[in-house]
Structure formats: structure tokens, C-alpha cells
């Protein structure tokens, strides 16, 4: 949510700042702005409601001379999207400017304090109190003033501050909202996410909560809020610039759907021991005794990650014979959960910064539980604060609607289930059978994606329907939930996902003549039961769209439309059943003329509650 970019160095900052903002558009936003400053201390601010193109359109033909700047894309939390509420925000005296991600929870009290001192605030935002507090405390040292102001702020923040009195210096701070520094040659960069930096440097520093950095062209230094120095390691990003560009695809969402075969291949590399039917997973920080001590597992996640966790729970219980519970992170963090030493938890998040998942993980750890991470972003907060874990290796995911993260998260958890299963009751033959099927998946996924020509036509038949239902059983129940979520996210069509048998307990009342119902009905052990549910909706006039395996004549005779996916191991079917659902959502949004990669009101990385 929201995006931050900062620059200080020898180049003209505005093009760098705008390029960085465009790299962060996937985070979701409703306004944008930029502030620059030259060595003489002259500050210039320009901001506009709407897309970055609105900001660019109104730029002056001749930009002010500058050597540093900050920029922001805002996702509204306090006050409507408009030019006034857009960032950067400036202090009343005009000498300090701030961009901010997060929420100042005590902004009302701070606003009263400032207005009581005669300071007039012009916006509806919580952020505007920050530059005015800093200005109030400023006495010749911006770093000191920032720390004093932050001492009064309750809530979350990732901020970058500039002052006309200290040219060529950015002061950066983080608490609960990600900030990364980019190290260049006699120049430095700041961003809320690494893709904004990749065109300029791969040398990055991930800031932790409670840290403040002073950033100048020659480098940076980091302390905590009590002025204690902190040594920070410089990491190297392993992404290439082409990975965060659309290439030959019209949209990032379509590109990322088609990247799933390669993501699965990458997720398997070096982790599968076919000879022993076992998996090798580095970074778990679990010894052999601790593996045997696991009696239960808990998966914590939100949104698409939760659906991947739900699908994985079926594999964990089947392969490892360990009870597995999936919790919505936003519920767990406020529930006073029962945590015990025999339960191993996983925090599942593509970005590794999801606020609710991070808070839930910390709550589990606070109560003495061990929580591992399943994340995509190297150096993210969950990756750093978890007790170990697995990177899913899916590569950058730019589209707001997550696709390849689902299959990559499911793969990582499948490999973990295999590993713990092989340490217990799962035979080597069963492990080899699963691994063989996993190695076949990339080719099967590629084959389906290359031949999915009918999906657009099927999507066209859905776009004017008032309601759509997705149904599946077993591990395909979470896949049905994910299919419904995708269609809602990008096309705004009202739809729901249900366990197929649960349909009789309410949703069947919504089915009438022509109601589209998407069934996930691979030829697995639940096939007969799912066919019975299909008969029930068909008898009530539903238009059945079935996702099935080749040669399934029962499905072909009953369904109105059949999407054929390759046959795989019963436990791995969600890897394939989810693909047509992602494509249906994508094509529906395109046909409706919607902004596929940036759906309304949504953000890629949800870093606020």
C-alpha cells in the first residue's frame, strides 16, 4: 500500500522519482506527488489526484534545478483522494517535507496539540502532523528533530524527510512499514519496495523497525531512536530488470499467470531428492529431534496466501499425518490464541510485509510459539523476524491480483509436507510418486496455458451475469475460493466460492436458469461426490462450466462447457485447476475494459489493518 521513492546524488531527481513511482504502481494508490530540493535549499512540491500520468501531465516544461527529492503514491486512509491530501506534506513554515506510509493512530490528539500552538493544518490526513512536529522540534539537526517527533507518534510509519536547512540529506525511519535503501556510486536511493530501485542498483539495505537512517550521496548511517549505532548489511538483489517489465504481454497479470511453470521449476530446483522420495529445505532451522516433536501445524495468512495455505493443509494432513489448522491472520492476532510448543506455525505472505500476518506471527512468538515464514520477498520483515522458513522463488509479482504466488506457496508447503511425512510414515515409493508428479507439473502447466484458447469465450459468457458460483471438494475447495476471489478482484463480478457439498446449505437458493456455476471436478477420489453436486445444480437450471481431465465422458455429458486440464496426482490437482480460473478472471476484466493490474480500492502489499 502506498509507495515511497527518494533520491540524493548527482543526477536530476524527478525522472528517477517518477520512474520509481511507476515501478510501485502495483501497490495501489489514488494520488501522487513529488518534492525536490537543490543545494541552495529551495524546495518545490507538485502533487495531483489520480494516476501518475496526471502528475506528469501537469509538470512544468522546465523543472526546477535539484539534487535530491522524495516522491509518493497515496492509498487513502484519512481523507478523500485529492490534491491537498496527496503527499508530500509540508510543515507550516514550508521548510520540512515528508512522505509517509502507515497510520498515525494518535493523530487527532497531535492535531489538537499543534492547533493549540497556532499551527493551521490544511489536509484531512494523519500524515500532516509529522512535518509540523518535526518543525516544532527542529533546532539545527534534522535527525534529532525526527527522532523527537517519532517519540510522540503511535502507529506505523515508513517516512522520508527533507529540510531546506539540510540540503543533500534524507532522514529515513521505519516502524511497521517497509523501507529499503539502495546504494549507488555517489548516490543513494530510498523506496518502500525493491522494484523501484532495480533499474539503478542491486545493492540494498533493508531497514528494521525502530531504525533511523541518515542518507547522503556518499552513503548512510543507521541508529535506533535512542541514538545507538546499528551496523546494517548490504544485500544484493537477484532480480533482473526484465522480470519487472511486461515484455510481450499486455498486462502483468497475464505475464505472471504464464510464468507459473517457470516459477514451479525454480521452486523445485535443489529441493527434490527423487532417489529417496524426499525433500531438502534449507533455512528451516529445525533439527531432527524438533521435526519429530511436531504434533500440530498452524498456517497463518490472508487472501490468496490463505487459500494456498488451505490447499496445503490437505497435503500436510495426508502426507505428514499431522493435524493442520489454517487461521485468518487478522482474526488470530486479536483472538488470544492458544499457542503450545508442540505446534509449528507458518506465516504465509507473498510480500513478507502483510501487516495482519506479521502481527499474528509476532503474537505467536510472544506466546512462546515457533513461527516459520513462507515468503517471496527476500529481506522482507517476515523473512527477517521469523524463526526460519522458505522462500517461494516465484520472482517479482507486480499485478495486484496475485497468481503465481498461489502455486509457489502451495509448492513450498507441499515440499515441507513431504519432508515431514518421509520422516514419519510416508514410504519412499509414495514420496517418489509425488516428486515425479511435481516434476511433471511445469510441462503440464505450460501445455495447458499454450492451448487455453477457449477461456476468453467462456469469460465473455460470464461478464453480464449478476452472480457466479465456484465449487470444489478437498484441496480444490480452496482453489474454488481462489477462483472466486480472482474474478471479484479484477472484474468486480459478484461471485462466491464454496465447498461443493456445502452449496446445499444456502447458496443453492441463488441458482436459477442460466446461473453460471464453475465446478472443479478432476478425476480424483472425490469425483463421484462432486458429480452428484453437479447434478443438483444442473437440475435447477444452472449453466455448468467444468474443469476436468481428458476423457471424462461423465462430465462432458452433463456440463455445458468443459475446460480440460492434464491429469496429475490427486493431491496436486489445485496446481492445475487454478490456472483456468485465473485466466477466466483476467479475460473477464479485459472484456469489461477494466484496469487489470490495478483493480479499484486494492493494494498489492497490505501494510495497514
Gist of the model:
By secondary structure, the chain is α/β, with parallel strands linked by helices. 34% of the residues lie in helices and 22% in strands. The termini are close together.
Would you kindly provide a written description of the structure presented here, covering whatever features stand out?
- By secondary structure, the chain is an alpha/beta fold.
- The protein folds into three domains: 3-244, Aminohydrolase, N-terminal nucleophile (Ntn) domain (Glutamine Phosphoribosylpyrophosphate, subunit 1, domain 1), CATH 3.60.20; 247-450, 3-Layer(aba) Sandwich (Rossmann fold), CATH 3.40.50.10490; 451-609, Glucose-6-phosphate isomerase like protein, domain 1 (Rossmann fold).
- It is built from 19 helices and 27 strands.
- The strands form five sheets. The chain has an eight-stranded antiparallel beta sheet with strand order 3-2-4-1-10-9-11-15. Strands 5-6-7-8-12-13-14 form a seven-stranded antiparallel beta sheet, covered by helices on one side. The protein has a five-stranded parallel beta sheet with strand order 19-18-20-21-22, with helices on both faces.
- Helix 4 (129-137) crosses helix 5 (142-150).
- The longest helix has 23 residues, at 428-450.
- It is globular, with a radius of gyration of 25 Å.
- The chain starts with a strand and ends in an 18-residue tail after the last helix.
- The mean pLDDT is 93.
Amino acid at each position: 500500500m502506498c509507495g515511497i521513492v527518494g533520491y540524493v546524488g548527482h543526477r536530476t531527481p524527478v525522472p528517477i522519482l517518477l520512474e520509481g513511482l511507476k515501478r510501485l504502481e502495483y501497490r495501489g494508490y489514488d494520488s501522487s506527488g513529488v518534492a525536490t530540493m537543490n543545494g541552495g535549499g529551495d524546495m518545490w512540491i507538485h502533487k495531483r489526484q489520480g494516476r501518475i500520468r496526471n502528475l506528469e501531465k501537469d509538470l512544468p516544461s522546465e523543472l526546477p534545478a535539484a539534487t535530491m527529492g522524495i516522491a509518493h503514491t497515496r492509498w487513502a486512509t484519512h481523507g478523500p483522494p485529492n490534491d491537498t491530501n496527496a503527499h508530500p506534506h509540508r510543515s507550516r513554515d514550508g521548510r520540512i517535507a515528508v512522505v509517509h506510509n502507515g497510520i498515525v493512530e494518535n493523530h487527532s490528539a497531535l492535531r489538537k496539540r499543534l492547533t493549540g500552538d497556532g499551527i493551521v493544518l490544511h489536509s484531512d490526513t494523519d500524515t500532516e502532523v509529522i512535518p509540523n512536529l518535526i518543525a516544532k522540534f527542529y533546532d539545527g539537526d534534522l535527525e534529532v528533530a525526527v527522532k523527537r517527533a517519532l517519540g510522540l507518534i503511535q502507529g506505523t510509519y515508513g517516512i522520508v524527510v527533507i529540510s531546506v536547512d539540510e540540503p543533500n540529506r534524507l532522514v529515513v525511519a521505519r516502524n511497521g512499514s517497509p523501507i529499503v535503501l539502495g546504494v549507488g556510486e555517489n548516490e543513494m536511493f530510498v523506496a518502500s519496495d525493491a522494484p523501484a530501485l532495480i533499474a539503478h542498483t542491486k545493492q540494498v539495505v533493508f531497514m528494521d523497525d525502530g531504525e533511523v537512517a541518515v542518507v547522503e550521496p556518499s552513503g548512510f548511517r543507521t541508529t535506533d531512536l535512542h541514538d545507538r549505532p546499528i551496523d546494517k548489511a548490504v544485500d544484493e538483489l537477484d532480480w533482473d530488470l526484465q522480470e519487472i517489465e511486461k515484455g510481450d504481454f499486455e498486462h502483468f497479470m497475464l505475464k505472471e499467470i504464464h510464468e507459473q511453470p517457470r516459477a514451479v521449476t525454480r521452486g523445485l530446483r535443489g529441493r527434490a531428492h527423487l532417489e529417496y522420495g524426499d525433500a531438502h529445505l534449507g533455512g528451516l532451522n529445525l533439527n531432527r529431534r524438533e521435526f519429530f516433536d511436531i504434533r500440530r501445524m498452524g498456517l497463518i495468512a490472508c487472501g490468496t496466501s490463505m487459500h494456498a495455505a488451505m490447499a496445503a493443509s490437505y497435503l500436510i494432513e495426508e502426507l505428514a499425518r499431522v493435524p493442520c489448522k489454517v487461521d485468518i491472520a487478522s482474526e488470530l492476532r486479536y483472538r488470544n490464541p492458544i499457542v503450545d510448543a508442540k505446534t509449528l506455525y507458518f506465516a504465509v505472505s507473498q510480500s513478507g510485509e502483510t501487516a495482519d500476518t506479521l502481527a499474528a506471527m509476532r503474537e505467536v512468538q510472544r506466546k512462546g510459539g515457533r513461527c516459520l515464514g513462507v515468503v517471496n520477498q527476500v529481506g522482507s520483515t517476515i523473512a527477517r523476524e521469523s524463526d526460519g522458513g522458505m522462500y517461494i522463488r516465484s520472482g517479482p509479482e507486480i499485478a495486484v491480483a496475485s497468481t503465481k504466488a498461489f502455486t509457489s506457496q502451495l509448492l513450498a508447503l507441499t515440499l515441507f509436507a513431504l519432508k515431514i511425512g518421509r520422516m514419519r510414515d510416508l514410504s519412499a515409493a509414495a514420496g517418489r510418486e509425488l516428486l515425479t508428479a511435481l516434476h511433471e507439473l511445469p510441462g503440464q502447466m505450460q501445455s495447458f496455458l499454450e492451448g487455453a484458447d477457449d477461456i476468453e469465450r467462456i469469460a465473455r459468457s460470464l461478464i453480464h451475469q449478476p452472480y457466479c458460483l465456484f465449487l470444489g471438494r478437498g484441496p480444490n475447495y480452496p482453489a474454488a475460493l481462489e477462483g472466486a476471489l480472482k474474478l471479484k478482484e479484477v472484474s468486480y463480478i459478484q461471485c462466491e466460492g464454496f465447498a461443493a457439498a456445502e452449496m446445499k446449505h444456502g447458496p443453492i437458493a441463488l441458482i436459477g436458469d442460466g446461473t453460471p456455476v464453475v465446478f472443479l471436478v478432476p478425476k480424483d477420489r472425490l469425483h463421484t461426490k462432486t458429480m452428484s453436486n453437479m447434478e443438483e445444480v444442473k437440475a435447477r437450471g444452472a449453466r455448468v462450466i467444468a474443469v476436468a481431465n481428458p476423457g471424462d465422458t461423465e462430465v462432458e455429458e452433463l456440463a455445458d462447457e468443459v475446460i480440460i486440464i492434464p491429469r496429475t496426482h490427486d493431491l496436486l490437482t489445485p496446481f492445475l485447476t487454478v490456472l483456468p480460473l485465473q485466466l477466466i478472471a483476467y479475460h473477464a476484466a479485459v472484456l469489461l475494459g477494466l484496469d487489470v493490474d490495478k483493480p479499484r480500492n486494492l493494494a498489492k502489499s497490505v501494510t495497514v489493518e
